[in-house]
Known about the structure:
A: two-stranded antiparallel sheet, 2 strands
Amino acid sequence: xxxxxxxxxxxxxxxxxxxxxxxxxxxxxxxxxxxxxxxxxxxxxxxxxxxxxxxxxxxxxxxxxxxxxxxxxxxxxxxxxxxxxxxxxxxxxxxxxxxxxxxxxxxxxxxxxxxxxxxxxxxxxxxxxxxxxxxxxxxxxxxxxxxxxxxxxxxxxxxxxxxxxxxxxxxxxxxxxxxxxxxxxxxxxxxxxxxxxxxxxxxxxxxxxxxxxxxxxxxxxxxxxxxxxxxxxxxxxxxxxxxxxxxxxxxxxxxxxxxxxxxxxxxxxxxxxxxxxxxxxxxxxxxxxxxxxxxxxxxxxxxxxxxxxxxxxxxxxxxxxxxxx
Amino acid sequence: xxxxxxxxxxxxxxxxxxxxxxxxxxxxxxxxxxxxxxxxxxxxxxxxxxxxxxxxxxxxxxxxxxxxxxxxxxxxxxxxxxxxxxxxxxxxxxxxxxxxxxxxxxxxxxxxxxxxxxxxxxxxxxxxxxxxxxxxxxxxxxxxxxxxxxxxxxxxxxxxxxxxxxxxxxxxxxxxxxxxxxxxxxxxxxxxxxxxxxxxxxxxxxxxxxxxxxxxxxxxxxxxxxxxxxxxxxxxxxxxxxxxxxxxxxxxxxxxxxxxxxxxxxxxxxxxxxxxxxxxxxxxxxxxxxxxx
Lengths: 325, 293
């Protein structure tokens, strides 16, 4: 029992903090909005972590999948569908697209997969711009209505942020369950050496595609909820910069750990708002951050702390059964 | 053949060749760097734009002769490359799978430069235009072509020929190709591998800069060309075969002509879709490219 409690203690604290934040900030819409955006980032970073941290693939089309889901959801609800049904259909459809877009991962690894995913992301963005009658092109779609709740009320304000907090917590819990399951261990085996994993009897194709489905589900649920929350989307909302920003959160926090990307998202998602008065240098700051992470923090914050702890106490390392990368 | 169709034909061919030569130059720069140090330089488009903007500043704002400005800009790439090499690139020479680290690193540089450009050179739709390198117009039959563009084409072609000869016959080129093929064996034969790495980084960037300057001389441009160029150069490198200079040359010209034809009969977006599609197919089915060595 204590083991169970200790295992989920961090999750409980995170859930508590996640639910308390919107309630505490409910007096100030601006801060509450920042919290809402941070929840999206936590969800997306957690989803990308499954691919980048645990399967060893860096997908730069992550934002595009979120975008597909957002456009499908909005399109369906504009045609009279209930938002929640539209979101379900949109998310599942975008995740199935995610499986298709993940197919190159079966043949390509490392840089070549990443380049391929960047090409796919560019094609998706171009398609959003090109199919004007579906997406309204570069102008984007504004005045997106808020989701209806049963009983005729609209989901808005603090209630919306609480829904986002719930989704973020569910995302982290789902990732934890996956990582600790045999599915997660198979993915880690594939990350370390997919040839070896194959000879151990792991069906690499199926595992990789399943990982893409789950990670795309994270992306697309976030995308569907993002559109009405912000009220405006355009092809630029889901371009390669979104994918890169999520990647930075994962890498900065520490890929391949449950809490690293969450910490990364919580630290980095509010940065654009803090820099709002200096929005012109936002790109420069992000670029410096990317370079800093690559050069100085290859394991991320959590990875760095872990490594330091191990160096200090070698005896503790022997006890720890955690996989060493 | 009537005059109008002849004019359309000639203008398509010259535009295609012009674009193709510039694409080839940039792609050769990218492929030299990737072939030697395994660095996919995603910032090539921003370097290209940096050169073009710098050429604009020196010739329009400072009032330098365009030819002098061009030389100055290309020369300025050398200290820039050295600084980047010492600060960032050098750290990863011995890292396994460094291509993905480099890729992300150069995406970071891309972000920084694009941020700086949007602050300093301002609005995205502004068109920049340089004074002509050579004034006057030559008539090709009924088709008038600016001497300026002819000069830019000629310089690009000469530069490509020099590069090709350098890499094929010169000692440096042979050492570079030896490092491409087998770094350890090259080191055993007395090649200074790190020196070759540094040289190729400097040379590759200088070539990309030259491409940017020549483009600025021939066409007016805006800040969006950076991203287009980056994607195009990558597509050319992948299709031609990473590290293959001949591949970059041939595919670059093919891309230029395709672009010129596509912009007459369809939209540039269609051309972009075509490049990206071709790149995806090559990546999936022949990752070593069409001109693999």
